[in-house]
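pasting for ref
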Amino acid sequence: MPRFSIIVPSHGVTGRLSQALDSVLGQSFADLQLIPVCDAPDAPAAALAAGYAERDSRVTPVHSPPSAGLSGARNAGMRAATGTYLLFLDGDDLLLPGALAALDIRLTETGGVDVLYVEHERVPWWEGEPTNPAAPLLAKAPKGPFAPGELPGLTGVQLPAWSAVYRRGFLTEHELAFPESHFTDLGWGGLTTLAAERIAVLRRVVVRHRLRRQGSRLNLPGPHQHALLDQVDLVLTRAAERGLPSERTGPLFEQLFAVVLKTASRPERLPSRHRAFFRRAGRLYRQHRPSGHRAPGGSLGVQHRLLATGAYTAFRALRGVNRAAGRRAALPSRPRMLRTRLRYARDLRRPLDPQLAVYCAYWGRGYACNPAAIHAKARELAPHIRSVFLVEADQVAALPKDVEHAVIGSRRYWEVLARARYLINNANFAEGVVKRPGSVHLQTQHGTPLKTMGVDQSTYPVVAAQSGSFTKLLGRVDRWDFNLSSNPHSTQMWERAFPGSYEQLEYGYPRNDVYCTATAEDVLRIRRELGVPEGKTAVLYAPTHRDHHTGFEAGLDLEAFCAAAGEDVVVLLRAHYFYDLGRSRSSDRIIDVTAHRSSEDVCLAADALVTDYSSIMFDYANLDRPIVVYADDWDVYRETRGVYFDLPAEPPGPVARTPEELAAVFRDGSYAGPEAAALRAAFRERFCAFDDGRAAERVVRRVLLGEPPEALPPVIPLAERVPAPAAATLVRS
């Protein structure tokens, strides 16, 4: 029997679940059982949990349907638990190092109490100091174990379930389970404290609770707010059945109704039946008010008395006065703006144009990537929508002649941004852009994340120093309505790196459609345009940007590589777009394609790809052509940039760590051999899930035409797709 069973529900937090599980399995105290609770056997979290179970026998995954809610997930975990003590951990929180060892020592000291309350840390996003809300309450507790009546203010309802440890025998004896419906922590905390005979506290932070940026789901408006009163009634009824004195029921009553009054005073949480909520709360107040209870003083006391008498109209009036005073105190100072910003402010007051869509790619670097592919498909499927592409002034000449555009920073730029219903970008719009009610913001992204992104960069100093304010970053994320994903891995990592309330669209990347739709004639035409000699093997070399470098470094002597790899090899050099300085690095056997507008064209022209850690490998894999990873500085890159998985352990093809190894795999042909093909097949299965040639169509139909998800073209299975043919295949044909 393990000492601890740790139960971790995973619904809605798959992207961060691995961090929670790692924080448990990495504890110095190893006598534990870890129980991840997943929605269903085929859910993304279930696959993740199954991988942990294969590697560690202490992991016991269980399943609970989303309809059962948080209470059902925790109860399912409790049924599977075999440990002496139970802990609960949210799937996006962390168990701090040394936590289990400290708990074991304290439980031994206190002789096996029913409940051990602990401190927890609430961490904000991303600037600001952590808080320890339990510390003032637990500081009043006796040093050793004690009966709950000795500290009646410790009712349990003010602490979340993961701020305590519970003896499993105690829970079984009293048949305690998490109450169904919402606000289950409130009911659980009250019921367990009422049933406990001996409790203790540990004045140490055990759990790091990472605040969701959108706030608690319980604060969202909806009929679920009425479930709060069910939990209050349940706890106070159980207290009455136990015949507890008013010294114990008084603090419990006040703490529960503090939560009730907080909800009643916020009508936005109760868009309907607000009066019914207030009236039922008043009945419960009168039914459960302890004998001799005196309302607190001040404004809170007034609210108590109005609730007790059912004076809804007076309560609403008091609430209105308080909210008006708060709004006056929060009025911002009037900002100063340049003339274009003043015009922008004026345009923001004009109606949205329902037929206007604005596109931007790579901060205005031209007509490219997912925005360009969506733009082209929109002109085919939604010609009634006017499309404007935003570009820097030096990119205007490179635009296709029939693409309407606006220069970034111009008066027209601000005007279309103010009035467009649809905003489509693969990076982010400027800081000053306002997301208007009724507008639709689609974030298309521009790659599959191997390296850490977004807020995950905050723990890597080199990257964090260049990233600016994470609070501002997340403010831009708040503008997103939709976020595009090309595979399940990306879906999970975007959720983790860019936490927000947007909807994930698992439709594939529109820019990758061409890998399934391009013809043999397209491939040969592109090779001629790029100057690839006929009959040569074109190897695309695309190294990624390194945050610890100050400029472009090829990382490989390309002339020496060509000489060693074979006479038929030529290199297409595509540096990261950060280093597109407009000057060529070409020679007889090296063709610099860094400045070429379309990375998709370059990939179609290449017979094989050599890259280090660039996300281009995920796109290129859709072509099912050879890929070689040149990982000469993997350890340095992993430590300075951070990565989401171990690429050398799960590569799309052979891994070379020296120039000699790289040349050898081309010289002997193993870069395209059966072992390389097997690695590539596994990689494609994982990372090419949705890129089937119809991604742009799905995006246009869903976002611009408003069609329901079930009406969209289904994703074509990987085995049924036919990638564009490679030049080598065409020559053999």
